[in-house]
Write a structure and sequence with these properties.
Length: 196
């Protein structure tokens, strides 16, 4: 009887391990709503450097910054040394935190509605959201959310169908090409943007 009971316990534990990831999986739509809520709260309650620091925490905790950096740097990522990549990632994070912080005032007064969530089998979800401002104007944003086993992370935003990662990639590539094909001038520019 003990063998049957212990066999049942082992089987139940194994079944629980397979079911647990489904229980712990994050709803991508709710994840995006939570992130936008955090950013709206920051916009309402903080300003200046404390706002930028709070935005940076949201970026670190909810965005796949390493993925975004690789996409934005494009083929130059492979050419950059490991220390240059680390410096680029830190500069990009700081510059984006500052830029997002400056744009947050619009988000503070918006109502966010999740229109649709397309969950794909590869761990990528596309979350289509509508931001409605107090005056009734709307902006549609599609959030690409990855979950590679380490939790949900935002990997890209598309505004009116245009990828923000691709815009950054074009901007950065042009900057690099205009500065001798080197990544370091871009890193210096991003570092400067973060402190302006």
């Amino acid at each position: 009887m003990r063998k049957v009971f212990s066999g049942f316990v082992v089987a139940a534990a194994a079944a629980l391990l397979f079911v647990m990831p489904a229980w712990s999986a994050v709803d991508p739509g709710q994840f995006v709503k939570n992130v936008t809520g955090q950013l709206a709260d920051i916009a309402r309650t903080k300003s200046g450097p404390s706002r930028d620091a709070a935005v940076r925490d949201v970026l670190r905790n909810n965005f796949d910054l390493a993925h975004m950096a690789r996409v934005a740097l494009g083929s130059h990522w492979a050419e950059a040394s490991e220390p240059m990549r680390a410096r680029f990632l830190a500069a990009l994070e700081a510059a984006e935190a500052k830029a997002y912080g400056e744009r947050l005032t619009k988000l503070a007064t918006c109502d966010v509605t999740i229109d649709k969530v397309d969950v794909r089998p590869n761990g990528v979800s596309l979350v289509k959201a509508v931001f409605t401002q107090a005056n009734g104007s709307t902006t549609r944003i599609e959030w690409e959310v990855h979950d590679n086993g380490r939790g949900a992370r935002i990997a890209d935003l598309r505004v009116s169908g245009v990828s923000m990662s691709q815009i950054k990639r074009s901007e950065f590539n042009l900057y690099i090409q205009s500065n001798g094909g080197q990544v370091e001038p871009l890193v210096k520019e991003l570092e400067a943007r973060a402190v302006r």
